Amino acid sequence: MFDNATLQALLDDIKDVIARGVRFLAAGQKCRFDLPTQLVDLASGVSTVDGRLAVELAMSVLNVRCSSRSLIHAIPIVHRAKGPEALRFGEYVMAVGDEEVRQHVREALSE
After folding, report:
1. Distance separating alpha carbons of residues 71 and 62, to the nearest angstrom
2. Most buried by CB count within 10 Å: which residue of 12, 21, 30, 49?
3. pTM here?
4. CA 46 to the chain's CA centroid
5. What is the phi-psi region of residue 66: left when phi exceeds 0, alpha when psi lies from -120 to 50, beta otherwise?
């Protein structure tokens, strides 16, 4: 995990990496690792400095490729981000996730 000053300095690079990854996924490309989850992890890291942007970045990935694993990795955004977008994101994750995902979201929201 990066400190907030480093995250601020890297925001444009993180946005670019996620955008390139989303284009790769949207094109139907396959890779030997879980790219959607790694991209969601990057978005999740952003949530400590910009919750709205973290939600936007994570949704760009989840709209293209969504799995229980990537949803679980998105839950820190629900926990860290503040404001209505974080609550809406939590509701979205609960709506599309399985029972395990929903339980993790409930825990994150109660903390």
Report:
1. 8
2. 21
3. 0.92
4. 9
5. beta
Q: Find the angle CA(42)-CA(68)-CA(18) to the nearest 5 degrees.
A: 25
Q: How far is CA 39 from CA 21, 47, 69, 90, 99, in A?
A: 7, 13, 12, 18, 23
Tokens of 66: 């969504």
At 86-103, the pLDDT tens digits run: 889 999 999 999 999 999
36, two tokens: 């959607």
Report the candidate in 34, 37, 22 with the shortest Cα–Cα distance to residue 75: 37
Distances (CA, A) of 7 to 12, 43, 60, 64, 70: 9, 11, 19, 25, 21
Cα–chain center distance at 70: 8
